[in-house]
Amino acid sequence: MMTYKDIPRINGTLRAKSIQMPEVIWSAKGMVVLGRRIKSCIFTTDIAIIRNCNADAVLAVYPFTPQQIINTTIINTASIPVFCGVGGGTTQGVRTALIAKDAEADGAYGVVVNSPMQNGNIEMIKRVIDIPVIATVVNENTDIEARLDAGASILNVSAAAKTPELVRHIRAEFPGVPIIATGGPTDDTIRETIAAGANTISYTPPGLDDIFSAMMAEYRKEAARVDSPEEKEMILEEMLELI
């Protein structure tokens, strides 16, 4: 039987430094959303990262009032399915339904409502869209059955270090509900979250400052080598040979 490590992988030089999901995520069962199997979601709104990762989908949720132009830009830029944030603590009511409707028209695979969000608001959103409503769950006090009855199709569990415990709690009562959950910082925390019952893992990538720092350290070493007299002479000889 072919394992993940046995799968042939073809890459290019220019894309060699793209962000790779932790391989342990691929042991998750995943979920099929609108015909696409999704095991990993990258949690970001950074277009450069979205275009340079191997995640199955994007969880585009941010701490500001959702704006159509932001969702549209992410959806148009991404080459993978996008789940768009449409409201929660600050943004409520008819506005969330309008943003959700526009997100669906732009091609979103689902819309995410943050906590807190009234169930009546979820019902309103579900009445105007056909794509899934993903309800964020942050603690055990959430009435999961009421969320599902209101129209939520998927749960997004985000409870920091308590995420595996909360996933287990939900899974015991709702064995069939699709769950996206934060995987945490290590392979072990991701494994624990999957074992608890998460179908799909959301992964927070390193920030661009961290990526730049590592890359610039490499570039400085390369610049020092290229600027050496020996290297310059070798480059000149290679150029003369081409002529």
UniProtKB/TrEMBL annotation:
GO terms for molecular function: hydrolase activity. It comes from the Bacteria. Keywords: Hydrolase. This is Hydrolase.
